[in-house]
């Protein structure tokens, strides 16, 4: 997928350039703050990010904001190695932030209070199906939806048919909204 390749390249640059990392991270802070409020997150929650990439901006920002235990899952071994190096470089506590190489289509989501899906995630329907099969009854899913003008760059997800809460984002991002599913 085109957007996945572009995102991966930008993330690789950001892992090697702390100024770029800080600039991009700043753009995620307001999105993450709103998503944390939407999901009513606190430091006792275990959060699962699927599709974190080499530079899991959202996962890092959410861990710093809430002090929650965050697990990032990605199926690309190189991205996982880079994300681990970055977490160490910026001083994230290993007991609060972990990066795992695994497929979201096979990962067991039980034990997590919040499951967050990356916007550029591939195989969204299969990943969401697996999550719904394995997640705890009281868990919630945060699912980002692209803006209409960039929707063609992302894989569609046919399993999003209902939502209790929707959060809309700034016009200056490629994220139209975040949907909270439970």
What keywords describe this structure?
Rossmann fold; 7-stranded mixed beta sheet; 5 helices; globular
The CATH superfamily name is Vaccinia Virus protein VP39
Biggest β-sheet: strands ordered side by side in the sheet:
3-2-1-4-5-7-6
Structural class: alpha/beta
**Helical coverage, percent range:** 25-40%
Q: Tell me, what is the CATH class?
A: Alpha Beta
- Number of beta-strand segments: 7
How many helical stretches? 5
The major β-sheet equals: 7 strands, mixed
**First-last Cα distance:** 28 Å
Q: Roughly what is the average pLDDT, rounded to an integer?
A: 82
Uncertain segments: 150-154
User: What Rg is obtained from the alpha carbons, in whole angstroms?
Assistant: 15 Å
SSE topology sketch:
Layout: H1 2-16, H2 18-38, E1 46-50, H3 57-66, E2 69-74, H4 77-89, E3 97-101, E4 114-117, H5 124-134, E5 140-146, E6 165-168, E7 175-181
Parallel strand pairs: 1-2, 1-4, 2-3, 4-5
Antiparallel strand pairs: 5-7, 6-7
Helix pairs in contact: 1-2, 1-4, 2-3
């Amino acid at each position: 997928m085109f957007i996945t390749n572009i995102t991966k390249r930008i993330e690789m640059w950001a892992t090697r350039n702390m100024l770029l990392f800080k600039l991009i991270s700043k753009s995620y802070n307001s999105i993450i703050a709103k998503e944390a409020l939407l999901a009513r997150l606190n430091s006792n929650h275990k959060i699962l990010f699927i599709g974190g990439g080499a530079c899991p901006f959202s996962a890092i920002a959410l861990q710093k904001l809430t002090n929650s235990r965050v697990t990032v899952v990605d199926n690309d071994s190189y991205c996982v190695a880079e994300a681990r190096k970055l977490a160490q470089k910026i001083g994230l506590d290993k007991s609060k932030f972990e990066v795992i190489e695994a497929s979201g289509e096979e990962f067991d989501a039980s034990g997590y209070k919040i499951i967050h899906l990356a916007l550029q995630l591939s195989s969204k329907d299969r990943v969401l199906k697996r999550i719904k099969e394995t997640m705890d009854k009281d868990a919630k899913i945060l699912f980002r939806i692209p803006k209409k003008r960039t929707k063609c760059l992302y894989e569609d997800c046919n399993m999003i048919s209902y939502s209790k809460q929707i959060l809309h984002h700034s016009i200056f991002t490629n994220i139209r909204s975040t949907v909270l599913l439970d």
